[in-house]
Amino acid sequence: MPSTVHRVLTRYGLARLAHLDRATGRAIRRYERDRPGELVHVDIKKLGNIPNGGGHKVLGRAAGRKNRTNAGYSYLHTAVDDHSRLAYSEIHTDEKKETATAFWKRAHAYFTECGITVERVLTDNGSCYRSRGWRDALAAAGITHKRTRPYRPQTNGKVERFNRTLLDEWAYARPYRSETERREAFPQWLHSYNHHRGHTALKGQPPASRVPNLTGQYS
Protein backbone atom coordinates (compact mmCIF):
# COMPACT_ATOMS: atom_id res chain seq x y z
CA MET A 1 0.00 0.00 0.00
CA PRO A 2 1.44 3.44 -0.91
CA SER A 3 2.71 5.47 2.02
CA THR A 4 1.15 8.78 3.05
CA VAL A 5 4.21 10.62 1.72
CA HIS A 6 3.87 8.88 -1.65
CA ARG A 7 0.18 9.76 -1.88
CA VAL A 8 0.90 13.42 -1.10
CA LEU A 9 3.68 13.58 -3.70
CA THR A 10 1.42 11.98 -6.28
CA ARG A 11 -1.46 14.33 -5.47
CA TYR A 12 0.69 17.39 -6.11
CA GLY A 13 2.52 15.97 -9.11
CA LEU A 14 5.90 15.91 -7.37
CA ALA A 15 8.69 13.56 -8.40
CA ARG A 16 10.49 11.10 -6.17
CA LEU A 17 13.93 12.14 -4.91
CA ALA A 18 15.52 9.41 -7.04
CA HIS A 19 14.07 11.10 -10.10
CA LEU A 20 15.49 14.53 -9.30
CA ASP A 21 18.76 16.09 -10.38
CA ARG A 22 21.05 16.37 -7.34
CA ALA A 23 22.35 19.82 -8.23
CA THR A 24 19.11 21.59 -9.16
CA GLY A 25 16.34 19.54 -7.53
CA ARG A 26 14.49 19.48 -10.84
CA ALA A 27 12.90 16.38 -12.29
CA ILE A 28 15.18 14.58 -14.74
CA ARG A 29 13.77 14.06 -18.20
CA ARG A 30 15.11 10.69 -19.24
CA TYR A 31 15.63 9.79 -22.86
CA GLU A 32 17.58 7.24 -24.83
CA ARG A 33 18.77 7.30 -28.41
CA ASP A 34 17.60 4.50 -30.67
CA ARG A 35 20.97 3.17 -31.81
CA PRO A 36 24.64 3.17 -30.78
CA GLY A 37 26.53 6.21 -32.03
CA GLU A 38 23.51 8.41 -32.60
CA LEU A 39 24.75 10.57 -29.72
CA VAL A 40 27.95 10.37 -27.66
CA HIS A 41 28.30 12.42 -24.48
CA VAL A 42 31.76 13.84 -23.74
CA ASP A 43 32.95 15.47 -20.53
CA ILE A 44 35.97 16.13 -18.30
CA LYS A 45 35.95 15.37 -14.57
CA LYS A 46 38.50 17.13 -12.36
CA LEU A 47 39.70 14.95 -9.51
CA GLY A 48 42.10 15.72 -6.67
CA ASN A 49 45.15 13.44 -6.66
CA ILE A 50 45.97 11.15 -3.77
CA PRO A 51 49.35 12.06 -2.23
CA ASN A 52 52.01 9.42 -1.69
CA GLY A 53 51.28 7.70 1.59
CA GLY A 54 47.55 8.14 1.18
CA GLY A 55 44.86 10.67 1.96
CA HIS A 56 42.48 10.96 4.90
CA LYS A 57 41.01 7.48 4.34
CA VAL A 58 44.43 6.00 5.10
CA LEU A 59 45.95 8.52 7.51
CA GLY A 60 42.90 10.02 9.16
CA ARG A 61 41.37 13.40 8.40
CA ALA A 62 43.92 15.67 10.13
CA ALA A 63 47.04 13.90 8.83
CA GLY A 64 45.45 13.35 5.44
CA ARG A 65 44.72 17.06 5.07
CA LYS A 66 48.33 17.89 5.90
CA ASN A 67 49.63 15.31 3.43
CA ARG A 68 47.31 16.65 0.72
CA THR A 69 49.43 19.74 0.00
CA ASN A 70 50.50 20.13 -3.64
CA ALA A 71 49.13 16.74 -4.68
CA GLY A 72 47.67 18.32 -7.81
CA TYR A 73 44.76 17.18 -9.95
CA SER A 74 43.84 14.62 -12.56
CA TYR A 75 41.40 15.19 -15.39
CA LEU A 76 39.27 12.29 -16.56
CA HIS A 77 38.27 12.71 -20.19
CA THR A 78 35.28 10.50 -20.93
CA ALA A 79 32.99 9.65 -23.84
CA VAL A 80 29.77 7.70 -23.21
CA ASP A 81 27.49 6.34 -25.93
CA ASP A 82 23.91 7.36 -25.18
CA HIS A 83 22.19 4.16 -26.36
CA SER A 84 24.52 1.52 -24.93
CA ARG A 85 26.27 3.50 -22.13
CA LEU A 86 29.56 2.11 -23.45
CA ALA A 87 32.32 4.31 -22.05
CA TYR A 88 35.81 5.26 -23.18
CA SER A 89 37.86 7.16 -20.62
CA GLU A 90 41.42 8.35 -20.09
CA ILE A 91 43.20 10.07 -17.20
CA HIS A 92 45.25 13.17 -18.07
CA THR A 93 47.06 15.97 -16.28
CA ASP A 94 45.13 18.80 -17.94
CA GLU A 95 42.03 19.79 -19.88
CA LYS A 96 43.75 21.74 -22.65
CA LYS A 97 42.31 21.82 -26.14
CA GLU A 98 45.14 19.71 -27.53
CA THR A 99 44.58 17.03 -24.89
CA ALA A 100 40.81 17.00 -25.39
CA THR A 101 41.12 16.76 -29.17
CA ALA A 102 43.69 13.97 -29.06
CA PHE A 103 41.50 12.12 -26.55
CA TRP A 104 38.50 12.37 -28.84
CA LYS A 105 40.41 10.96 -31.79
CA ARG A 106 41.29 7.88 -29.72
CA ALA A 107 37.75 7.62 -28.36
CA HIS A 108 36.35 7.82 -31.88
CA ALA A 109 38.73 5.08 -33.01
CA TYR A 110 37.59 2.93 -30.08
CA PHE A 111 33.91 3.33 -30.90
CA THR A 112 34.63 2.60 -34.56
CA GLU A 113 36.47 -0.58 -33.59
CA CYS A 114 33.40 -1.58 -31.58
CA GLY A 115 31.27 -1.21 -34.70
CA ILE A 116 29.73 2.10 -33.63
CA THR A 117 29.39 4.92 -36.16
CA VAL A 118 29.38 8.18 -34.20
CA GLU A 119 26.89 10.69 -35.62
CA ARG A 120 26.72 13.41 -32.96
CA VAL A 121 28.79 14.47 -29.97
CA LEU A 122 27.39 16.44 -27.03
CA THR A 123 29.71 18.52 -24.82
CA ASP A 124 29.46 21.44 -22.45
CA ASN A 125 30.72 24.88 -23.44
CA GLY A 126 34.26 24.47 -22.13
CA SER A 127 37.00 26.28 -24.04
CA CYS A 128 38.61 23.04 -25.23
CA TYR A 129 35.36 22.12 -26.99
CA ARG A 130 35.19 25.51 -28.69
CA SER A 131 38.67 25.24 -30.18
CA ARG A 132 39.43 25.00 -33.88
CA GLY A 133 41.20 21.67 -33.38
CA TRP A 134 38.11 20.13 -31.78
CA ARG A 135 35.84 21.50 -34.48
CA ASP A 136 38.09 20.24 -37.26
CA ALA A 137 38.45 16.77 -35.72
CA LEU A 138 34.68 16.31 -35.65
CA ALA A 139 34.14 17.85 -39.07
CA ALA A 140 36.77 15.59 -40.65
CA ALA A 141 34.81 12.56 -39.46
CA GLY A 142 31.43 13.99 -40.47
CA ILE A 143 30.29 14.26 -36.85
CA THR A 144 27.84 16.94 -35.70
CA HIS A 145 28.80 18.85 -32.55
CA LYS A 146 26.05 19.77 -30.10
CA ARG A 147 26.50 21.75 -26.89
CA THR A 148 24.60 21.70 -23.62
CA ARG A 149 22.61 24.69 -22.46
CA PRO A 150 24.75 27.03 -20.32
CA TYR A 151 24.73 26.16 -16.61
CA ARG A 152 22.71 23.00 -17.25
CA PRO A 153 25.21 20.12 -16.89
CA GLN A 154 22.32 17.67 -16.43
CA THR A 155 21.69 18.06 -20.18
CA ASN A 156 24.78 15.87 -20.58
CA GLY A 157 23.27 13.44 -18.12
CA LYS A 158 24.66 10.12 -19.35
CA VAL A 159 28.28 11.12 -18.83
CA GLU A 160 27.46 13.01 -15.62
CA ARG A 161 25.92 9.80 -14.27
CA PHE A 162 29.03 7.89 -15.34
CA ASN A 163 31.16 10.40 -13.43
CA ARG A 164 29.16 9.83 -10.25
CA THR A 165 29.49 6.07 -10.68
CA LEU A 166 33.25 6.17 -11.10
CA LEU A 167 33.59 8.34 -8.00
CA ASP A 168 31.59 5.86 -5.93
CA GLU A 169 32.95 2.64 -7.40
CA TRP A 170 36.55 3.52 -8.27
CA ALA A 171 37.94 6.90 -7.17
CA TYR A 172 36.68 6.74 -3.57
CA ALA A 173 35.83 3.06 -3.36
CA ARG A 174 38.79 2.11 -1.17
CA PRO A 175 41.72 3.73 0.65
CA TYR A 176 44.45 4.03 -1.99
CA ARG A 177 47.97 4.81 -0.79
CA SER A 178 48.96 6.85 -3.83
CA GLU A 179 47.60 8.33 -7.04
CA THR A 180 49.61 5.74 -8.95
CA GLU A 181 47.82 2.93 -7.14
CA ARG A 182 44.44 4.44 -7.91
CA ARG A 183 45.26 4.96 -11.58
CA GLU A 184 46.47 1.39 -11.90
CA ALA A 185 43.03 0.22 -10.75
CA PHE A 186 41.18 2.29 -13.34
CA PRO A 187 41.51 0.12 -16.50
CA GLN A 188 40.12 -2.94 -14.73
CA TRP A 189 37.25 -0.95 -13.26
CA LEU A 190 36.41 0.51 -16.67
CA HIS A 191 36.49 -2.95 -18.26
CA SER A 192 34.15 -4.24 -15.57
CA TYR A 193 31.82 -1.27 -16.10
CA ASN A 194 31.57 -1.92 -19.83
CA HIS A 195 31.47 -5.72 -19.82
CA HIS A 196 30.14 -6.94 -16.47
CA ARG A 197 28.37 -4.28 -14.41
CA GLY A 198 24.61 -4.42 -14.82
CA HIS A 199 22.87 -1.14 -15.63
CA THR A 200 19.35 -0.41 -14.41
CA ALA A 201 18.40 1.37 -17.64
CA LEU A 202 19.64 -1.66 -19.61
CA LYS A 203 17.47 -4.09 -17.63
CA GLY A 204 20.41 -5.34 -15.61
CA GLN A 205 22.69 -5.92 -18.59
CA PRO A 206 26.14 -4.32 -19.14
CA PRO A 207 26.79 -1.80 -21.93
CA ALA A 208 28.58 -4.42 -24.03
CA SER A 209 25.28 -6.28 -24.42
CA ARG A 210 24.06 -3.48 -26.69
CA VAL A 211 27.16 -3.27 -28.87
CA PRO A 212 27.24 -5.75 -31.78
CA ASN A 213 31.02 -6.16 -31.86
CA LEU A 214 31.20 -6.69 -28.08
CA THR A 215 28.14 -8.86 -27.45
CA GLY A 216 29.28 -12.02 -25.69
CA GLN A 217 32.81 -10.70 -25.12
CA TYR A 218 32.45 -10.23 -21.37
CA SER A 219 35.74 -11.80 -20.31
Automatic annotation (TrEMBL):
Disordered, as annotated region: 197-219
Matching Pfam families: rve
Gene3D superfamilies: Ribonuclease H-like superfamily/Ribonuclease H (3.30.420.10)
Annotated ranges, domain Integrase catalytic: 32-215
Example GO molecular function: nucleic acid binding
Xref: PROSITE patterns: INTEGRASE
Any single biological process term in GO: DNA integration
Entry-linked NCBIfam families: transpos_IS481 (NF033577)
Name of the protein in its database record: Uncharacterized protein yagA
Gene: sle_07700
